[in-house]
Amino acid sequence: xxxxxxxxxxxxxxxxxxxxxxxxxxSFSSINAMAWYRQTPGNQRELxxxxxxxxxxxxxxxxxxRFAISRENAKNTVYLQxxxxxxxxxxVYYCNCDAYVQTTLRRYWGQxxxxxxxx
Length: 119
Prior knowledge:
Largest sheet: 7 strands, mixed
Structural class: mainly beta
Number of helices: 0
Strand content: over 45%
Radius of gyration: 14 Å
Order of helices and strands: EEEEEEEEEEE
Shape: elongated
């Protein structure tokens, strides 16, 4: 009942910037937290940043000070501004949200978008 569509990934040089976007649509009642995760082959998916419905944020230590998560509630969209990108940031980035569909709170995931940091 909730679809998340991501955009903004791509190839960028070290030190460059990208902004990821993720828009939610569907028959949900409300969205609580929205977050960005990332995953590399053979590894677990890890939390990058999270933002609550009230705008409070938290970040993975390795990206703190470089990345910024924000949301535009009127558009049901979450963003991830990524600055000073490093090769270690290369991964598939997934957005997610915790949303109520009727009275059930569930977690939904986007399709993933590739971010590659390389010269």
